[in-house]
Amino acid sequence: MKRSAAAVGVALLALPLYAQQAASTVQGSAALPEIRVLGTAEEELKQAPGVSTITSQDLEKRPPANDLSEIIRTMPGVNLTGNSASGAFGNQRQIDLRGMGPENTLILIDGKPVSSRDSVRMGRNGERNTRGDSNWVPPEAVERIEVLRGPAAARYGSGASGGVVNIITKKPTDKLSGSVTLYALQPEDSLESDTRRLGFNLAGPLSEKFSFRLYGNINKTTADDPQLNGDAFRAAGNALSSNTLPPAGREGVKNRDINGLLRWDLMPGHVVEFESGFSRQGNIYAGERLLSDTATGAMNTLAAQGAETNTLWRRNVALTHRGNYGEGRSSNVSISYDRTDNRRAEEGLAGSSEGALTINPRTGQPDYSQNKLENWRLAGEYNTPLQLGSQRHMFTVGFEHRRQKLDDPYSTAAVTGSDVSSASSLMESKTTAVFIEDNFEALPGLVLTPGLRLDHNSDFGNNWSPSLNAAYSLSPTVTLKGGVARAFKAPNVYQLNPNYRYTTMGNGCPYVTGSRVSGPCYIYGNPDLEPETSVNKEIGIGWDDRGWAAGLTYFHNDYKNKIYADFGGQNVPAVDPRTGGRPFQWFNAAKAVVQGLEGHFNMPILGQNGDTLKLINNFTYMVENKNKETGQPLSVIPRFTINSTLDWQINPKWSSQLTATFYGRQKPMSYNTANNTERTGDDLRPLPTYSVWGISTGYDVNKHFHLRAGINNLFDKRLYRLSTTNNFGASTYNEPGRAFFVQLTGRF
């Protein structure tokens, strides 16, 4: 398999060299009928019902304070959740597509996967203390963001079971142009975090064939005050001593980004791009920890100081060739490398310090460790129209090779005992894939887009991902669309590494017949894990006529082989005499189901097609989101989410927006899968329905300056975090209160 995949890859790389000759041969042959060029399968899939696009104009009208996820969450099917349903690290909210969890959302930048979060150690319930990967590109550098959910995402391989977020950056321009943006957000409550951001974008020609694009960003979002949740925590019946922190609010973050792209227009239809970038993200500590009772005096001091307890440095480089050979024939080949260095204050793995920062008694400060994650990727595809009998087709063939290597001495150093004392700290995984797609009009008005992808992974072998999407025009304004695809997610390098061990002492061990087993209990990586797989189905109908638009989509995902490390799902092993602990493992266990409805309704009010005043709405309703065996949710998300925007273009220079988001009831887990016990009392407390409103206005001062100002959370609806691990139900995150923002952009 490895040799055949490599051979296909080499052949695909050679295709562009012969494409022009083939094109001229076809043009010179009078025997062949004329081929009507169709769109590629990728272009057709971006018209699927589960696809949304955010433009640079959208980002300008609704600027995020820091992370792009703040506006991505306004799309249908999107919520922000913690990395697991346990509630741990609940304020590290990340993009969750259709309730499949952040780990099943694949983040791309210009079509290339970004996986810096894989450098963060994974806990037993799937927790990662990570901000995710949606914050590597500043808003000013974004051309558009494509959000693909459901079957349309299957073509992208591992990690896209929930969907794909593709962040497209701005490209070089044929005239020198640039912009500088200043942004400030100030909360009404002095205990909540504020933001200051400075970004720039510069692009233009260097010569007849060379052009460039350069962007940069400096951003600081402070942390919530460590005492922000204190009053609400006490009101819920909790006691706080003078040296104990309540559950942490939102951590701060300091961003530094610089990225450059050099474009070479080699010849008509052929472009070569070289890109390189560097980013640094450092946190501002707010007292975050895994368990609610593990805040030590030293951690309190670090929170009060706003110390930087974790830092990520990301370096990336890429070389891309795009070719256009006429008559719909095109190619895209790229090679890329990115490296993430992850420096973190060491976290305890045992007893009362589990998940807490380990403090050196000599210095009174944390000890730090650093790991290194490297990703290599070679990918390419070729699109060509073909005539098969009387049928016109647009075929795509492609390949992808990914290699991921993680060196984490701290995680393997935590493994003690004579059996593994010399274990390697290196973890590596390789995947090679080939795929083929077709796009054709099977009947008048019926377009079919079948696809097939084969992935070969160095650890678990082969995985097939077939897909079929369809669109049928019922009338010029009404379209019926649907699709079905098999998607998958490979186990991460921590889960696969037999030398990685997560440790918990007696308090974290499971209960059996009413009593807790003796500790310590270990969870080891498992090299025999299978990939998680899901069959994603959707069907939707859409209507679009002169500014009016409406649509409704039903989606259903059957999910199996989900990887768990919960103690409750495994038989309790005997104590290993070499380590003195009970050796559990990550394992494939559960089946799950996710189903729901997405919809939108846009109404023009004033002007042609609503150009002056329009109402834009979308909604998501979750019918079901659960592990079939335990009945527990995969993500703690609202039963429904409604996003509404009243967009008013007052005149060509002046615009305003009124926004509202309505969140339905959120229910926590009712069962503690970590230690095999039922939750009771306040642990089952749901979050009730609530709404958050905002208002903003923007004005073009002149052709060079644009000013926008607004109020987030206009009516000051606030939520306070009461728990770190569902100890107070679904109250595991903060909803920040009223805040004022202003953004000034200068252009030339």
From TrEMBL:
Residues 1-19 form the signal peptide. It is a multi-pass membrane protein. Residues 117-136, 344-368 are annotated as: Disordered. Keywords: Cell outer membrane, Ion transport, Iron, Iron transport, Membrane, Receptor, Signal, TonB box, Transmembrane, Transmembrane beta strand, Transport. Its main location: membrane. GO terms for biological process: siderophore transmembrane transport. A motif (TonB C-terminal box) lies at residues 731-748. Residues 50-164 form the TonB-dependent receptor plug domain. Pfam families: Plug (PF07715), TonB_dep_Rec_b-barrel (PF00593). SUPFAM superfamilies: Porins. It comes from the Bacteria. It is found in: Cell outer membrane. Residues 118-131 have a biased composition (Basic and acidic residues). InterPro entries: Beta-barrel_TonB, Beta-barrel_TonB_sf, PirA/FepA/PfeA, Plug_dom, Plug_dom_sf, TonB-dep_rcpt-like, TonB_rcpt_CS, TonB_sidphr_rcpt. One of its GO terms (cellular component) is cell outer membrane. Residues 307-714 form the TonB-dependent receptor-like beta-barrel domain. The keyword Metal-binding does not apply. GO terms for molecular function: siderophore uptake transmembrane transporter activity; signaling receptor activity. NCBIfam families: PRK13524.1 (NF010048), PRK13528.1 (NF010051), TonB-siderophor (TIGR01783). Belongs to the TonB-dependent receptor family. PANTHER family: TONB-DEPENDENT OUTER MEMBRANE RECEPTOR, TONB-DEPENDENT SIDEROPHORE RECEPTOR PROTEIN. This is FepA family TonB-dependent siderophore receptor. It comes from Xenophilus arseniciresistens.
